[in-house]
Design a protein that fits this description.
By secondary structure, this protein is an all-alpha fold. It has one domain: Glycerol uptake facilitator protein (Up-down Bundle). It is 72% helix and 0% strand. It contains nine helices and no strands. The radius of gyration is 16 Å and the shape is globular. The two termini are 26 Å apart. The mean pLDDT is 96.
Length: 210
């Protein structure tokens, strides 16, 4: 149970931060949003990584399961805790900002699919290498590496897809209409596929690291 509580808390603060820095932000302030989001994720990974792995992301949990660092029995609980944390965090951000009327941004399907796949792959690949590999065991940089790849992704393709890289984020932001529900399938498909691909490539390139 404590693992699920940690996953809820970490995902809650990640999505709360996203919502709080995006809703009603001026163009100037929005330029710094990815920095706050990346730092929030890094801090939450450091805070909870020793308990639950600090996934805060169903795609990362899927990659961890396929890599052999999460049991099949644990996956549903992680996904539920992460999704709940994302929804509660999104609604908390909306309430704190006065629940303004939000209009989902428009995205082009194919570029968004590719963008979300690539950077979810990059995120899951980073997690597997810095937080589950025996070659990097005990390192002190894993949290910043994970936070920084999200920061890079948000700056790189945020204008293309919204830069979720996380099904819990996509569901939470859809719940408050920052993302359109009709586009949710794009995020879920691309992000879960990115997590699967990262695990497959990791196992193929780390055969001596079971």
């Amino acid at each position: 149970m404590k693992k699920l509580v940690v996953e809820f808390i970490g995902t809650f603060f990640l999505v709360l931060t996203i919502g709080a820095v995006v809703i009603g932000a001026s163009p100037e302030a929005a330029l710094f949003a990815p920095i706050a989001i990346g730092i929030a994720l890094a801090v939450m990974v450091y805070a909870g990584g020793h308990v639950s792995g600090g996934h805060y992301n169903p795609a990362v949990s899927l990659a961890a399961f396929l890599r052999g660092r999460l049991s099949l029995a644990e996956v549903p609980g992680y996904w539920i805790a992460q999704t709940a944390g994302g929804l509660v965090g999104a609604f908390a951000a909306c309430w704190l900002k006065g629940c303004p009327a939000l209009t989902p941004g428009e995205i082009a399907t194919t570029p968004a699919l590719v963008a979300e796949f690539l950077f979810t792959f990059a995120l899951a690949w980073t997690v597997l290498n810095v937080a589950t590999s025996k070659a990097t065991a005990g390192n002190s940089f894993y949290g910043w590496a994970i936070g920084c790849i999200v920061l890079v992704g948000a700056y790189s393709v945020g204008s293309i897809s919204g830069g979720a890289f996380n099904p819990a984020v996509a569901i939470g932001l859809s719940g408050i209409k920052l993302f359109a529900w009709s586009n949710l399938w794009i995020y879920l498909l691309a992000e879960l596929a990115g997590g699967v691909a990262a695990a497959v490539v990791f196992k193929a390139t780390h055969r001596d690291d079971p």
